[in-house]
Design brief:
The protein has eleven helices and eleven strands. With about 350 residues, it is an alpha/beta fold.
Length: about 350
């Protein structure tokens, strides 16, 4: 199945579809560092920097596709205007980038469409943009469609992350179905399950390429290390002694409320000085805001640790400076969540593909 990923970023959504057996032919984004990461980790795919605000992007995209059939179009349009941690500006022009998905759908008539976004799109601004996406599906008229909020830990991702997925299946093929859960609260993958095998970096900032310091301790770690024999992107942040001292006063799973009076007052908000809980999935991975800390060590998680918590395998290497790498990881769809959605889409449209 040939896939186009609009708003690909570094390729978390794409990677899940590749792991499910798809051929991602093109990833589109306007972040050059993210596109370099995408191409590095998707050697059979082409990265395109296109302006999706301009409807003429479809001509360049069609030229690149050539005579290939496009079976699936996926994308996670920017969510800054909808996110609870973003600007929440109804007039943010990025709020309308979802239209690019439907311009591409009209051109290529794929078997399936997948749009991913933040759950708050359902209710923010009176559900205005949620309704607009639904109306675009209705205007197209070729697709059965549904939306559903998926919770990443239910699919083996060691991170508290909720995302809404809109799936459209062409009417001549079948109905929409979302994947069954693979995990429940009794067997969620925890922070410790995910990253306890990685070097501590207690007395060093780390090197660009490192050896594993232990054997994998959990099934999840085995999965992440399956095709890797070295560690990349595992460089610690050089905090001041004062910052490290404040972090050291926060217990496993604690936050600023656990600090003594007068300590850590430079950060006074809900997520301030939050230490991950070793026995639970991590907090939602952000784009590097330096407010979340390792459950054991007195530092923020490294890019690799965040990547593990996002379910990126260790052989997925991030390109760019450290700030760009953190942003790529935080903006991505967890590949393991994407994989489960992809498998269900392929199950629905697979018979049609075989008959063709």
């Amino acid at each position: 199945m040939n896939v186009i990923d609009l708003f690909s970023g570094c390729g978390g959504l794409s990677y899940g579809f590749v792991e499910a057996g798809c051929n991602v032919i093109i990833g589109v984004d306007n972040d050059e560092a993210a596109l370099k990461t995408f191409e590095f980790n998707h050697p059979n795919s082409k990265g395109l920097n296109l302006d999706l605000f301009n409807d003429h992007f479809i001509d360049k995209l069609a030229d690149e596709v050539g005579n290939k059939e496009v079976d699936i179009i996926v994308g996670g349009p920017p969510c800054q205007g909808f996110s609870l941690t973003g600007s929440r500006n109804a007039e943010d022009p990025r709020n309308k980038l979802y239209k690019a998905m439907f311009i591409a759908a009209k051109k290529f008539n794929p078997k399936a469409i997948l749009i991913e976004n933040v759950p708050s799109i359902e209710k923010l601004y009176g559900g205005k943009f949620y309704d607009l996406i639904i109306s675009e599906f209705e205007k197209n008229g070729n697709y059965n469609f549904k939306s559903q909020i998926l919770y990443a830990p239910d699919y083996g991702v060691p991170q508290i992350r909720r995302r809404i997925f809109f799936i459209g299946i062409r009417k001549d093929i079948g109905q929409v179905k979302f994947p069954n859960k693979t995990n429940d609260p009794n067997n969620y993958v925890t922070c410790s399950d995910a990253i306890s095998d990685l070097p501590s970096l207690e007395n060093t900032l780390g090197e660009e390429v490192q050896n594993y310091s232990s054997n994998p301790k959990t099934e999840y770690q085995k999965l992440m290390r399956k095709n890797a024999n070295k560690i990349y992107n595992h460089i610690a942040t050089n905090h001041t002694e004062e910052v490290k001292k404040v972090i050291s006063l926060v217990p496993d799973g604690g936050n600023y409320k656990d600090l003594p009076n007068g300590v850590g007052t430079s950060r006074k908000f809900n997520e301030a000085w939050t230490r991950y809980n070793s026995k639970k999935p991590s907090k939602t991975i952000d784009t590097g805001h330096r407010n979340h800390f390792h459950y054991k060590y007195n530092r923020i998680p490294t890019v690799r640790e965040n990547a593990r918590l996002q379910s990126f395998p260790d052989n997925f290497i991030f390109i760019g400076n450290k700030t760009q790498q953190y942003r790529q990881v935080g903006n991505a769809v967890p590949p393991l969540l994407s994989y489960n959605v992809a498998k269900e889409i392929l199950r629905i449209i697979g018979d049609s593909n075989e008959e063709a």
